[in-house]
């Protein structure tokens, strides 16, 4: 089991991870989600002893990574698939890792087979595609047959067959009782792979719950109702009836109606009583992506905007702006989904966030929280983070493999 308690990491003035407490349990795939720059890789590096926490601690099976005897036999990780000596063949890369950890060479050939790289085992890895590099990184993680596995974006660059393979591999590893912690931005894939989720935003815990609970907690149920498109009057009639009965009805883009506030049987009865035919009446199943977007919308640092060509147009229009062109407006305010519940507010605990772990610092007062912003968020400048902790040593980056180059 991986356990983080009050984990915090500051890089100078930048707080990458703040007061993070969670557990990653064996026997299940735990997804690690969060927007770009939310601190996932930093957290994984701290778990692996590659970065030292500014505060708090993280342990694997009760020990800090550095205190684990023969750690590569107990913990395997894919952090950066490019962190490979490109002049080395795939096999020699794995062999050098194996030799460092007392792993027999026969295991190298086993894992090359597991990841499907036997054919290119003697090729230099600098010629590998993104997906082949990922497979090599996964092979390295599996080398010591570890009980605890961390994967940072393992399906990055993989083709559909590779994605399916990784999904099944993760599930198989978990079914063998291993601890599998995997980060990804591919929500559809996470929904199929993970059972449990840890979601962070701006370095802080947003949710720690099962995928099912996460979707339920972050999406509002509604019914999709469709009347025959050949008779628009039926749609209008039904809208009136449902609204009168206390329902909230909004049109969908495809002509259906989105109804909240009324149970499905009630909608059916009301339609029947009003003599309106229904072509569709279905509960809406929110996807993990929808739920994730809802939960993290207030914690996104890097949000794209529409390219409205305002600057481009200004160069061309006689009065600075072409007809129809608008100045690009930064989307600072969180997007409000009209069907969704209100987004989580800073300082207000989300139902998915458990209480502090034993030994963890208590709730952080808003005025001490570097991320706390007055409500509504994003409309006032963020308070200055606390001063950098000078005690933090320089970041330990993944060290280069320094064993002598194998003869080819
Ligand atoms: N060595 C470092 N020095 C300074 N800042 C860093 C360092 N490593 C990470 N950061 C900062 O910490 C924050 C968290 O970065 P991190 O890479 O952990 O996020 P992430 O969730 O993994 O992002 P992504 O999904 O884009 O990979 C970012 O703002 C990043 O710029």
Please give a structural write-up.
With 408 residues, the chain is of the alpha/beta class. The chain folds into two domains: 312 residues, P-loop containing nucleotide triphosphate hydrolases (Rossmann fold); 61 residues, Alpha-Beta Plaits. Helices cover 28% and strands 19% of the residues. It is built from twelve helices and 13 strands. The protein starts with a strand and ends in a 92-residue tail after the last helix. The C terminus is likely disordered. The site of adenosine-5'-triphosphate has 12 residues, from β2 and α1.
Features:
binds adenosine-5'-triphosphate, Rossmann fold, 12 helices, 13 strands, disordered C terminus, Alpha-Beta Plaits, six-stranded mixed beta sheet, four-stranded antiparallel beta sheet, 408 residues, alpha/beta
Order of helices and strands: EEEHEHEHHHEHEHEEHEHEEHEHH
Specify the CATH class of the largest domain.
Answer: Alpha Beta
Judging from the principal axes of the Cα atoms, what is the shape? elongated
- Write the CATH homologous superfamily of the largest domain: P-loop containing nucleotide triphosphate hydrolases
- What distance separates the N and C termini? 40 Å
Give the percentage of residues in beta strands: 15-25%
Structural class, please? alpha/beta
Q: Which small-molecule species are bound to the chains here?
A: adenosine-5'-triphosphate
CATH topology of the largest domain: Rossmann fold
Number of strands: 13
User: Overall mean pLDDT score?
Assistant: 79
Q: Report the sheet with the most strands, covering strand number, pairing sense and barrel closure.
A: 6 strands, mixed
Report the uncertain regions: 318-346, 359-408
């Amino acid at each position: 089991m991986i356990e983080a308690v009050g984990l915090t990491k500051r890089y100078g003035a930048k707080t990458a991870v703040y007061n993070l407490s969670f557990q990653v349990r064996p026997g299940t795939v735990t997804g690690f989600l969060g927007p770009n720059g939310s601190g996932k890789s930093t957290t994984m590096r701290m778990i692996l002893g590659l970065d030292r926490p500014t505060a708090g601690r993280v342990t694997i099976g009760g020990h800090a990574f550095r205190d684990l005897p023969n750690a590569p036999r107990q913990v395997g990780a894919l952090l950066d698939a490019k962190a490979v000596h490109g002049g080395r063949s795939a096999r020699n890369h794995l062999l050098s890792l194996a030799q460092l950890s007392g792993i027999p060479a026969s295991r190298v050939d086993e894992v090359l087979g597991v990841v499907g790289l036997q054919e290119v085992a003697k090729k230099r890895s600098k010629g590998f595609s993104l997906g082949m590099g990922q497979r090599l990184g996964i092979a390295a993680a599996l080398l010591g047959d570890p009980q605890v596995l961390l994967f940072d974006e393992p399906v990055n660059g993989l083709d559909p067959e590779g994605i399916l393979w990784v999904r099944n591999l993760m599930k198989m590893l978990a079914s063998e009782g291993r601890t599998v912690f995997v980060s990804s931005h591919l929500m559809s894939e996470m929904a199929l792979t993970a059972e449990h989720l840890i979601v962070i935003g701006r370095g802080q815990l947003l949710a720690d719950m099962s995928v099912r609970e996460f979707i339920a907690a972050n999406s509002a149920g509604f019914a999709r109702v469709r009347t025959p498109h050949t008779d628009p009057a039926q749609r209008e009639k039904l809208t009136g009836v449902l609204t009168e009965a206390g329902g909230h009805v909004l049109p969908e883009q495809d002509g259906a109606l989105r109804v909240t506030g009324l149970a499905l049987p009630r909608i059916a009865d009301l339609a029947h009583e009003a003599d309106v035919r229904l072509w569709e009446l279905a509960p809406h199943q929110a996807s993990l992506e929808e739920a994730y977007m809802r939960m993290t919308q207030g914690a996104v640092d890097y949000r794209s905007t529409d390219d409205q060509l305002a600057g481009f147009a200004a160069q061309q229009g006689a009065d600075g702006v072409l007809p129809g062109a608008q100045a690009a407006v930064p989307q600072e305010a969180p997007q409000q989904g009209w069907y969704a519940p209100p987004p989580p507010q800073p300082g207000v605990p989300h139902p998915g966030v458990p209480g502090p772990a034993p030994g963890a610092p208590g709730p952080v007062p808003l005025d001490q929280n570097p991320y706390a912003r007055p409500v509504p968020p994003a409309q006032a400048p963020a308070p200055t983070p606390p001063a950098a902790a000078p005690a933090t040593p320089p970041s330990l980056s993944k060290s280069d493999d320094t064993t002598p180059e194998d003869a080819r």
